[in-house]
Design a protein that fits this description.
Number of domains: 2
Largest sheet: 5 strands, mixed
CATH class of the largest domain: Alpha Beta
Order of helices and strands: EEEHHEHEHEEEHHHHEHEH
CATH architecture of the largest domain: 2-Layer Sandwich
CATH topology of the largest domain: Nucleotidyltransferase, domain 5
Bound molecules: 5'-O-[(R)-(carboxyoxy)(hydroxy)phosphoryl]adenosine, zinc ion
Number of helices: 10
CATH superfamily of the largest domain: ATPase, nucleotide binding domain
Shape: globular
Strand content: 15-25%
Number of strands: 10
Length: about 325
């Protein structure tokens, strides 16, 4: 089965064609980062308009390079969670094509897309596993029994990890989205004279809280004025280290609690090299294994939506009488395959 996937939940327009027999065939990605940068964050209305302008030409180009619409068996789009207007663009395009060509269509959960992104690699994790989903909008630890069988073990009570990276980066004067740039700044030093707290690690449970870290960063910045480049790098290092160690402690706890030996890390912050290295070390020490998606499938993309949609469409699921999008949507509300 060949599925055309459309991702439009935030500021990336992602289009991909996935074949259940031969894998990923084609993909296109358009990032709107430049348009949003001058505002210091994503402007929802601007994002919707950019998706409107970009998605259709990208789909046409992708189909022209891969056998046309006739070769597509079904369509998948991101139904949520995400920005209402941005989601509606992808949903309308996917449903419009499906209706015009009489093909099945399915709305995919964006975080299920992230969670299954490591399946696009040759070396795939087997079920069950614990997933750490770390993106700009979500921080979740999920017990994954199989596709669609999810139990949320813990989540952020305030800022998502990516959001904390972006806000702290902004305080350090870095342009949006600051996560990767903060990581690059932190990599310039090998230690730090600052020590940031590890939020909520002394309490039992698997929830997170990251909003205090940006306040801690703000206070640290205010106490060391004027801020030198070395101060900035050391603050970035201390912040990143605190985040990574907090995530490591909670991942280890989740693996022990569930008895799972497999950890999957996905979402934009999954591209962070220090996080990757630290979780690699932790799982090796505990006789477990960690899987990450390829770097390009950590941040938002169409391939993960085409893949997740293909699993459900191949199992006979499709949208029946669904006309909405879901800006808020729990992973636990998804049906199993
Ligand atoms: O998954 P994603 O592309 O979009 C959402 O679904 O939110 O994640 C984007 C987030 C941003 O906050 C970005 O700063 C962060 O992922 N990010 C990183 C890195 N690369 C992306 N954060 C830390 N280190 C990185 N290398
Ligand atoms: Zn995402």
């Amino acid at each position: 089965m060949r599925v055309l996937g459309i991702e439009s939940s935030c500021d990336e327009t992602g289009i991909a064609l996935y074949d259940t027999a031969s894998g990923l065939l084609e993909q296109r990605l358009y990032s709107q980062i430049e348009q949003h940068r001058e505002y210091g964050g994503v402007v929802p209305e601007l994002a919707s308009r950019e998706h409107v302008a970009r998605a259709a030409p990208m789909i046409e180009e992708l189909l022209a390079a891969s056998g046309g619409l006739e070769s597509v068996d079904a369509l998948a789009y991101t139904r949520g969670p995400g920005l209402m207007g941005a989601l509606m663009v992808g949903a309308c395009i996917a449903r419009g094509i499906a209706w015009a060509c009489n093909k099945p269509v399915l709305g995919v959960h964006h975080m299920e897309g992230h969670l299954l992104a490591p399946m696009l690699s040759d070396d795939k994790p087997g079920f069950p596993f614990v997933a750490l989903l770390v993106s700009g909008g979500h921080t979740l630890l999920v017990d994954v029994e199989a596709v669609g069988r999810y139990k949320v073990l813990g989540e952020s009570l305030d800022d998502a990890v990516g959001e904390a990276f972006d806000k702290t980066a902004k305080l350090l004067g870095l342009p949006y989205p600051g996560g990767p740039q903060l990581a690059a700044l932190a990599a310039r030093v090998e230690s730090s004279r600052y020590r940031f707290p590890r939020p909520m690690v002394d309490r039992p449970g698997l929830d997170f809280s990251f909003s205090g870290l940006k306040t801690f960063a703000l206070n640290t910045i205010q106490t060391c004025q004027p801020l030198s480049d070395d101060d900035k790098a050391q603050i970035a290092f201390a912040f990143e280290r605190a985040v990574v160690e907090t995530l490591e402690i909670k991942c280890r706890r989740a693996l022990r609690q569930t008895g799972c030996k497999t950890l999957v890390v996905a979402g934009g912050v999954g591209a962070n090299l220090r996080l990757r290295a630290q979780l690699q070390r932790m799982t090796e020490a505990d006789g477990a294994r960690v899987y990450f998606p390829e770097m390009r499938y950590c941040t938002d993309n169409g391939a993960m939506i085409a893949y997740a949609g293909a699993q459900r469409l191949a199992a006979g699921q499709s949208d029946q009488g669904i006309h909405d999008v879901l800006p808020r949507w729990s992973l636990e509300d998804l049906p199993p395959l």
